[in-house]
Specification:
- The protein is mainly α.
- Helices cover 69% and strands 4% of the residues.
- Among the domains are: 3-104, 2-Layer Sandwich (Gyrase A, domain 2), CATH 3.30.1360; 336-467, no CATH class.
- A 4-stranded antiparallel sheet has the order 1-2-4-3, with helices on both faces.
- Helix 13 packs across helix 16 (346-361) and helix 16 (346-361) packs parallel to helix 20.
- The chain starts with a helix and ends in a 7-residue tail after the last helix.
- The chain crosses the membrane at residues 112-133, 225-245, 265-289, 296-320, 340-362, 396-418, 438-458.
- It catalyses: N-acetyl-beta-D-muramate(out) + N(pros)-phospho-L-histidyl-[protein] = N-acetyl-beta-D-muramate 6-phosphate(in) + L-histidyl-[protein].
- InterPro entries: Glu_permease_IIB, PTrfase_EIIB_Cys, PTS_EIIC, PTS_EIIC_1, PTS_IIB_1, PTS_Sugar-Specific_Components.
- Residues 4-86 form the PTS EIIB type-1 domain.
Length: 470
């Protein structure tokens, strides 16, 4: 990809730099806050070579693929660093349009999910990296533990039998290193979530991190609380309330006392509310969600796996799938496993299978070119390239791919596959699979892929898609 050309063309078809108020990115998308939507040429945007799809929402989301989104966004932000960016923000008419766009939020539930997604998007890259490192370490530790049990190896000094085996294999240092690095994220995730939540809700960033730190303090046991009680749900709510309170306290505190009095008052009030109200209440909510999800999977079985996996491509297409990260992480904190995430990533298999069928069916050279680029990317990591570049443009393929993903979800439940981390899908998810069920995961993924391929290919033939020129 010519990143500079793609970035320049995106800016051009979005109405120029003066029409771009803010630009950021997630794993696959360049997210652009537009001042005047009427100046955006959506058809031209979708026609840019290298752009796999465009999603119109509260932000304009241009899908270019993993690894590429950060580079394109960085180039656009370089373009915005000049005087034109200042015009986009300072112009009163554009400010008014931005305010009107913000007022167009369709539902409160969607707004909440969007906020949660925005909170976790900045954490995703290290979360994926830490999850992969944790998965690699789990392979080393589980192998050593099985060998120690089979050979009846005893502990030596402060070392457990597993550590003794790792030491004999000269892997104890590596295992310790991987354990420290991965737990540095998962162990303090409440702090990072507090920081990104405060940024999302326009509050003091470090104050958000401080509230997160309070929820994992070991001294909480003296107050009858459990470190981590209420989980990330409690942290996010507490930080939202803190940001709301901070803005109102700042209105009444004299400017000369603001730097001292405002944070002190806010911290005292919010710490008390967090410890004595929010954490206990959020603990009840968090436990109810966990029990509900586990109960659904336990009682619904394969049917639940089918329905959930079939719905996940829709959530991904709407950009709402990140809103489930608190649930995945709470499951890991409570049980060590995230069975719902294992079902979620079956959406990847369905989209790959459907896109492969479209590749074989289509007579459109541009569609073939996009599919050939999107399919390997989705096999390796994320499904957005096949979703937006191939299956949604094809129409029926998104539906048949979602149904195919459901069969992958059924196999996940049947084979008892779970993950002990969260991250990307496809082959990148292999290190995250718990209990060494790598072959079972691959079998479930292939099942979803094959089912989606067969459904899409058969539907395409019946619809005459292979005879169309577009």
């Amino acid at each position: 990809m010519n990143y500079n050309l793609v970035a320049d063309t995106i800016v051009k078809h979005c109405g120029g730099t003066a029409n771009l108020a803010h630009v950021t990115n997630c794993m696959t998308r360049v997210r652009i806050t537009i001042a005047n939507a009427e100046q955006v040429d959506m058809q031209a945007l979708r026609g840019i070579e290298g752009v796999l799809g465009v999603v119109e929402d509260d932000t304009l989301q241009v899908i270019v693929g993993p690894g590429k989104s950060s580079k394109v966004a960085a180039i656009i932000n370089d373009l915005l660093s000049g005087t034109q960016a200042t015009i986009a923000v300072s112009d009163p008419e554009m400010k008014a349009r931005l305010a009107r766009d913000k007022a167009k939020k369709p539902t409160r539930i969607k707004s909440i999910l969007k906020h949660i997604a925005n909170i976790f998007v900045p954490i995703l890259p290290p979360l994926i990296a830490a999850g992969i490192l944790m998965g690699i370490n789990n392979v080393l530790v589980n192998s050593a533990a099985s060998f120690a049990m089979a050979q009846h190896i005893a502990a030596i000094g402060d070392m457990s039998p597993t550590q003794v085996v790792l030491d004999q294999r000269h892997l104890l240092g590596l295992s310790t290193f991987l354990d420290i690095v991965s737990k540095a994220l998962f162990g303090f995730l409440a702090i990072y979530t507090g920081v990104t939540s405060a940024k999302e809700f326009d509050g003091t960033v470090v104050m958000g991190g401080l509230l997160g730190a309070i929820t994992i303090a070991p001294q909480l046991a003296h107050l009858g609380l459990i470190p981590g009680q209420g989980g990330l749900i409690g942290v996010i709510f507490a930080v939202w309330l803190m940001c709301w309170l901070e803005k109102r306290v700042r209105r009444i505190v004299p400017d000369v006392l603001d730097v001292v009095l405002t944070p002190t008052l806010v911290l005292i009030i919010m710490a008390a509310a967090l410890l004595f109200v929010i954490m206990p209440a959020a603990g009840v909510v968090s436990n109810a969600i966990l029990h509900g999800m586990n109960g659904l999977l336990a009682t619904g079985g394969m049917a639940a796996g089918f329905v959930l996996a079939s719905l996940f491509p829709l959530l991904i297409s709407l950009g709402l799938h990140h809103g489930l990260f608190p649930i995945h992480l709470e499951m890991i904190n409570a049980t060590g496993h995230a069975p719902l995430f294992a079902i979620q990533i079956m959406s990847n298999s369905g989209m790959v299978g459907a896109a492969t069928a479209v590749l074989l069916l289509t007579r459109d050279p541009m569609m073939k070119k996009i599919a050939k680029a999107a399919i390997p990317t989705s096999i390796l990591a994320v499904g957005e390239p096949t979703i937006f570049g191939v299956n949604i443009p094809a129409g029926f393929a998104f539906i048949t791919g979602s149904i195919g993903a459901g069969f992958g979800g059924m196999m996940i439940v049947l084979l008892g596959v779970t993950t002990n981390g969260v991250g990307a899908a496809g082959l990148s998810a292999l290190p995250l699979i718990a209990d060494g069920k790598y072959l079972q995961y691959i079998l479930a993924w292939l099942t979803g892929c094959l089912a989606a391929f067969v459904l899409t290919y058969a539907t395409g033939k019946l619809r005459g898609y292979d005879k169309e020129s577009i």
